[in-house]
Specification:
Two copies of one chain form a homodimer.
Chain A (H helix, E strand, L loop, with lengths): L8 H20 L1 E3 H8 L3 H13 L3 E4 L13 E4 L5 E7 L3 E8 L3 E9 L10 H15 L6 E8 L2 E3 L4 E5 L4 E4 L1 H14 L5 E5 H12 L8 E6 L3 E7 L2 E2 L30 H5 L1 H7 L18 H12 L3 H25 L3 E6 H4 L1 H15 L8 E4 L6 H16 L1 H13 L1
Parallel strand pairs in A: 4-7, 7-11, 12-15, 15-16
Antiparallel strand pairs in A: 1-3, 2-3, 4-5, 5-6, 8-9, 9-10, 12-13, 13-14
Chain lengths: 420, 420
């Protein structure tokens, strides 16, 4: 609620606009003052004052450089400073753990990833995982790059308010207070100070990442699907990230599409991911018993096996072609339902659906023509742009949210911390 | 974008707050100034000034009356005036047409409904329908009650920007520019002046109505299902009405739930509404060939037949019980998917699902326990509160939107029109 109180109205508007300008630069990297004025609808003297304030906070830099190398008289460009404040982005995937230090503008300054290896295959001990994250974060964090927030992407169902992981079947977790644990056992220990820790589901962060810096940029209504062992999903509706009442929204992998289908790990039957996920592809291709199949001991992700099947299908192998076609058919059936529900401008396909986009697309288009009730000619199907980086990029975006919303307050708190 | 421009900042904030106060009164009917201050977080002197402005616009009335009959010293209450400006709400249903005059506060001041009768059963001529709406509106409109907008609810797939009806299978319509036609052939002719005309799908307006004045009040994340011949759906996500990129969102009836199911009118197979809609219930109860079955000539809606089956099920009739149980099972299967996708705080069941809520609920709860992956204990299932009034209530809300957003501008335009 914007209050009318003499003296504070102008201040509230100014702080709102400071956030708007910083966000533009965070997304675009560098813009001239006149581009900033055009994009924000603010007048030039206001832009000047706001840029000066952001400069004094060490968040942007100004210079007579045309950073994009075009000809003509260089205009004064305002660039985001990616080296002054950073976020810590953590990804807890099925087969690996990654930690990255990400600067403003989404620049990944440093990244470490470790594979979980065979010993983790039967489930993952929470303490071991926290130890790994602690070790990676210790390697990456430097005293001269203050951290303003931490974001965690996890392959589980997460309560957004406090980062409580309700269940993460592929990690063997139930009821893990991950947000709290990362705050106390990683952030506080490694950094020596507290910063906000946000946790979200990997695919939810995938759509955030693709919307911010990937294939969904500029689209206000987006459905993002990521094909892995399960089907992850994330939704942007009317420009906003859909999280649901408790933050559990986007669990599209368990939409029932085939009541006579296979039993799913969730207790249901014929869930979308049992029909169109990685295991379905391997089963249909007759590869379920190969040593690198996802259920086989010592291996949890079948990305390599999946890609071999996709390559074989491209080469005309009939069994592989059949398997890819069936997965595309089920993918299309579920996707028709989501298009009818959301009427998205763009559908972004990630994970194995992104890697196999060329072989899936013809069947998908055909099924959607039959099944999507709403005039779907306007819905674009595109492959994801960020590939495996999406969860980390999304986690960093999430961690930057407080700074982007209240740049002056967050930076003031940082200064106070430094001077103590 | 809120701009910083000297002289205009304060004005923009004041107009925003004027809208906030009017909306509170529109939703609550009457509030004391201190309740208004508490709900809007505005200070009392601001509230006083805003209420005086709304009073001068004839939109509210102030008095020392405790409108709610509680004891003690009466405080000055501010009440919405429902008799000064009105909207025209139109409902184009499968078997009837209704027009209502609705005042601020959602008060239905007058309503006329006509059944379509047997001659309309094979489809509905657009011209005839416009003629009926014209006649009803002419009866209802009075020169001393100026109309500020018109809203139309229609059982079809509607492009929200201009009220173009892409397809309305149960009316036999394709590609009808309904918004334009109602504007030129009803509003302009009956009123003699132009007002904005908004058109939306009946179930989309159902969720708007239930969210504003019904069973979904106060919930930020809502899934609304209305069981009729089809399954209508409307979504509120994070407090906002979900419309999709083109306004076609919420077409949940055509989510595929049973690939081996019956052929659907949309061209698909085993859509949710073929398994859990009115026709499924009648078919399962063995009533599909009765003269009042929905496909029989001379009848398009099977509400009477549905209610007989539900009553029989309540009385222990085994065939009726089986039919209701099967519909509940398929309803639950689809609903599990929607709960996984949206993580709603509340699911509101309307149409036949609302009328049969007591007999459907036990099966639904059981299926959701099995199938809803996300911790669904927090998702409430409730019957709709507004019953058949929901589409008209929603259409009126839609028509009030411009007035609620910019009370002074809309009322100024009205004054100018009157003085011409």
């Amino acid at each position: 609620m914007v209050r009318i109180e003499h003296g504070s109205t102008h201040e509230a508007v100014r702080r709102h606009n400071l956030s708007v300008v910083l966000r533009q630069l965070h997304l675009q990297g560098a813009l001239s003052r006149s581009e900033l004025a055009a994009r924000t609808e603010l007048n030039r003297s206001t832009i000047k004052a706001l840029v000066e304030q952001l400069d004094s906070l060490d968040l942007v830099v100004e210079g007579d450089l045309d950073l994009r190398g075009t000809r003509g008289r260089p205009s004064t460009m305002v660039g985001i400073r990616s080296d002054q404040v950073v976020t810590l982005a953590v990804e807890i995937a099925v087969d690996s753990i990654a930690v990255a230090v990400v600067g403003l503008g989404g620049h990944v300054l440093d990244i470490r990833r470790v594979d979980r290896g065979t010993d983790g295959a039967a489930g993952t001990d929470v303490d071991d995982m926290l130890g790994t994250i602690h070790a990676l974060a210790t390697e990456l964090c430097q005293p001269d790059r203050p951290v303003v927030g931490a974001g965690v992407a996890v392959v589980g169902i997460v309560r957004r308010a406090d980062g409580f992981v309700h269940v993460a079947p592929n990690l063997g977790w139930t009821a893990v207070p991950l947000g709290e644990l990362v705050a106390s056992r990683v952030v506080q220990e490694v950094l020596g100070y507290d910063v906000p820790v946000s946790v979200a589901n990997e695919a939810d962060l995938g759509v955030l990442a693709e919307h911010t810096r990937g294939a969904a940029q500029g689209a206000a209504d987006v459905v993002y699907l990521s094909g892995e062992v399960g089907i992850g999903g994330g939704i942007i509706a009317d420009g906003r990230w859909l999280t649901g009442a408790r933050g559990y929204a986007g669990e599209i992998g368990h939409m029932p599409v085939n009541p006579d289908g296979l039993r799913c790990g969730c207790g249901g039957r014929g869930c979308w991911e049992t029909e169109a996920g990685e295991r379905a592809l391997l089963r249909l291709a007759g590869d379920a018993n190969r040593p690198d199949a996802p259920d086989a001991p010592g291996r949890r992700s079948g990305a390599g096996a999946v890609d071999e099947i996709v390559t074989a299908a491209r080469g005309g192998d009939p069994q592989a072609g059949y398997a890819v076609g069936e997965v595309a058919r089920w993918l299309g059936i579920g996707l028709a339902g989501l298009i009818n529900v959301f009427d998205p401008e763009r559908v972004v396909l990630g994970g194995m659906y992104g890697r196999a986009f060329d072989v899936l697309e013809p069947t998908l288009v055909e099924i959607l023509k039959d099944r999507a009730l709403t005039p779907s000619s306007g819905t674009e199907l595109v492959p994801a742009a960020l590939a495996t980086a999406a969860p980390l990029v999304g986690a960093a975006e999430l961690a930057f949210t407080p700074l982007l919303e209240q740049p002056d307050r967050v930076m003031d708190a940082l200064m106070n911390r430094r001077s103590q």
